[in-house]
Amino acid sequence: MNDEISATPEPDVSAENPISEHWVWVGPHRPPVPRVLFEHMTSDWDVAAPSLEVHPAAAFAAQRRARLGEQFSGKTLVVPTGNPKVRANDTDYRFRPGSDFFYLTGCVEPDAVLVITPGAGGSRSTLYVPERRDHHTHEFFTDARYGELWVGARRGVSEAARYYEIDSAPLEHLEKDLSSLAATDVLCLRGFDPMVDGLIGPHDEDDLLANALGQHRLVKDDFEIAQLRLAIAYTVKGFEDVVAALPAAEGRGERVIEGVFNLRARVEGNDVGYATIAASGSNATILHWVENDGAVRRGEMLLLDAGVECHNLYTADVTRTMPINGKFSPAQRRIYELVLAAQEAAIAVVKPGVSFMAPNDAAMRVLAQGLFDLGILKEEPELALRRDRQLHRRYTLHGVSHMLGLDVHDCANARDDVYLGELQVGYVLTVEPGLYFQANDLTVPEEYRGIGVRIEDDVLVTADGATNLSAALPRDPDEIESWMAEIWSDGPVNLRI
């Protein structure tokens, strides 16, 4: 027997004693790593020069933090980004930072935490981020979730400080630093990070922090508006891609439509901003149809509700309803033109100082009158629209607008009296009336059953009214038919499936 092999030492390492002469402890339920391998894996690596690049939103984020700190003067504010989420067993979904955290920092690192503390000269912000799992640690090659040989390099403390232009500290110091603060002075954005929630006791004003962030995010600054324009421009390309692929989708189904649009979202941006709705035929009458496994048939319509999320996480939210064969039937056109008239009436009233509900009310008056004229609504519109009646809602189902930004349904934590209050310059909202006639609805003439139409655009409130940011996509039915024909004139996309 070989004496050297027989002399191999027994591992004597643990969390309390992580390194011995021959072994390195790498975590529970895992065999220790030979020290010689650890030294081999963590030595002789070239170090890249530090980047001098600065995040394009750094100056805007600093202003946002200062405004929030001033509002909560005397309080410490803790805003975590969240953690990776398990998709299945030991695989995670692609990480996306919490929207409020990103709004205040621009940081995309998982597990990070922003702490804003009061001071005599104004608030001070500190970004807590994990130390890098680079070649200085065994996690470099042993940790499949964070090790840089597994997932690539991430910004550590010093690089984060430069890139986001914010004081930064190791995440490992967070617990000690928070423990030195009076619990009654600390407000936390809860529900994102169990570790942070456990460190900070609940406070009566925690909800006020969430409300304030929702309210601050209502008014978009120049950086945010530019990002929304970018996301919408990419979304327009995605809709064009779908039209080009429509002939290939016939016989293959809605999955083709979803896949084609989502390809554009990944090519141009970070991802889709929400689950794409690719609803053909009567599936268009289901508001959140995301199964996208139905058939695509000539003679029916496609309702495509989709948006690209750009690299800085702002998302578009646009809907178009189009004839799959490129030509509206008389019944389809009749319903489409009614919804379009409602949308135009809604957009026309958008301006500073009007109620958030004003576009909805304008659209509903048009829809109710149209439903009455079609013989579907049996009551006079004025009666049907009364608050104690609302009979038109059988066919309209949803409100006309929601805020848009980092989230597709943005600013959800703003107080109702603010969210539903007067529109202000810098608000971005959707305007999306719709009519949905279920295939088995006996109150609807047979020729309209199974038709669902929604038209949705992203509208910026300006000083003198509103700008339709997604106007590049045609809405008029004649223009839609011409647009589709022009795209097809280059020849249909031949998908190799």
Characteristics of this structure?
19 strands; Creatine Amidinohydrolase; 3-stranded antiparallel beta sheet; 5-stranded mixed beta sheet; 497 residues; Creatine Amidinohydrolase, Chain A, domain 1; disordered N terminus
CATH architecture of the largest domain: Alpha-Beta Complex
Count of DSSP-assigned helices: 18
Domain count: the total is: 2
Provide the CATH top-level class of the largest domain: Alpha Beta
Distance between the termini: 60 Å
If you consult CATH, what is the topology of the largest domain?
A: Creatine Amidinohydrolase
- Portion in helices: 25-40%
Spatially, the strands of the biggest sheet line up as 8-7-6-3-9
The shape is globular
Point out poorly predicted stretches: 1-6
CATH homologous superfamily heading of the largest domain: Creatinase/methionine aminopeptidase superfamily
Radius of gyration over C-alpha positions, nearest whole angstrom? 27 Å
Quaternary organisation: single chain
Structure summary, number of beta strands: 19
Quote the average pLDDT: 93
Structural class given helices, strands, pairing?
A: alpha+beta
Q: What is the strand content? A: 5-15%
Major sheet description:
5 strands, mixed
Structure in a nutshell:
This protein is α+β, with helices and mostly antiparallel strands and 497 residues long. It has 18 helices and 19 strands. A hairpin with a 6-residue loop joins strand 6 and strand 7 (124-129).
